[in-house]
Design brief:
The chain is of the alpha/beta class and 318 residues long. It is built from eleven helices and eleven strands. It has a six-stranded parallel β-sheet with strand order 2-1-3-4-5-6.
Length: 318
């Protein structure tokens, strides 16, 4: 399929920070859905290679590639908005190339990024949100939108039984600025056996393939669903944990129940204190059936292939 992905190759636009997860999240899962005949265009590297007349070079590159669709994932972090394409670039693409364009949107709760998405939607045929969507934006887009989830690639081999995994519980994410998260992760070390905690506030993020390997070695993983400003958000961690057969300890939020049964598939909690208590008593052997049911549900309904089936069918009809 002649689909052109546009996104940054390097995390924070900095090679020293390692590759971003977008290639794994979007391109690798798309390749499970269909043959990808066009290599992704990493626009941070493209800008560096063509500092002059970048837009003209970009239009030429896209014209030669002859894609049937363009899938553009802007950078969501507030401090990085200036690294995204200028609006006039998308305007030129729309005016000069007969190709459908979709925006792949992560973290729609960040106010500055949400405003950027609304502006970008003027030049897109479809907005695809990957975090359950932001209800406040639903009527502001200038293009149709579809609220989906974070696609995750399939495991490369059989999943280990929970009782044979290296870590009892893992948490990878931002810890240090949040006192409740500090309290939760500190409680894991003495009481929950073999814990793996990686705080991206003080350490570089794990490469995405290594992060997935950590989940494969975790009997349980923790998802904290509060997003920017305390709003609920459908986090990718739920689908990543489910894909690797881990028990997902999930902070209750209004989006998750649309995808998983909080009681049958997950271990849901309402407060950090409740999570701490549940984790102290966590026995992997007692939760094997729950983990298997959650993984099977992910395979049947929320795999990367299911994501692209919905996304591409909607774009085709847009």
């Amino acid at each position: 399929m002649r689909v052109l992905f546009l996104f940054e190759r390097w995390r924070d636009g900095n090679p020293a920070r390692g590759e971003s997860a977008l290639d794994s999240i979007f391109v690798n899962t798309f390749r499970e859905y269909a043959d990808l005949e066009i290599a992704p265009l990493f626009y941070d590297e493209f800008r560096a290679a063509h500092p002059q007349e970048t837009t003209a070079h970009l239009i030429g590159h896209i014209g030669r590639a002859r894609p049937e669709a363009i899938l553009y994932c802007p950078v969501p972090a507030m401090r990085e908005l200036d690294r995204n394409f200028r609006l006039e670039v998308l305007d030129v693409i729309r005016d000069n190339l007969p190709v459908k364009t979709a925006l792949l949107a992560l973290d729609t709760n960040i106010p500055h990024f949400a405003s950027l998405l609304v502006s970008y939607s003027r030049f897109a045929d479809l907005v695809i949100t990957c975090d359950g969507g932001n209800p406040a934006l639903a009527n502001r887009y200038h293009a149709p939108s579809i609220d989906l989830w974070t696609p995750v690639q399939q495991p490369t081999g059989p999943l280990k039984p929970l009782t044979s995994r290296q870590f009892t519980v893992s948490f990878c994410g931002t810890v240090a600025p949040y006192p409740d998260r500090v309290a939760l992760t500190e409680s894991l070390r003495p009481s929950a056996g073999r814990a793996f905690v990686h705080d991206i506030a003080v350490k570089p993020p794990l490469p995405y393939d290594r992060f997935l390997r950590v989940l494969e070695q975790s009997a349980a993983t923790i998802n904290l669903s509060n997003a920017y400003g305390g709003a609920d958000q459908l986090k990718g961690r739920i689908f990543e944990g489910a894909s690797r057969g881990a028990v997902v300890f999930e902070q209750r939020n209004r989006f998750t129940a649309d995808y998983f049964d909080p009681d049958a598939h997950l271990v849901a909690f309402d407060s950090i204190e409740e999570a701490k208590d549940l984790l102290v008593r966590f026995d992997p052997a007692e939760h094997a059936a729950r983990a298997e049911a959650c993984h099977a549900h992910w395979q049947a309904h929320w795999s990367g292939t299911k994501f692209w089936e919905k996304a591409m069918a909607t774009l085709a009809g847009a």
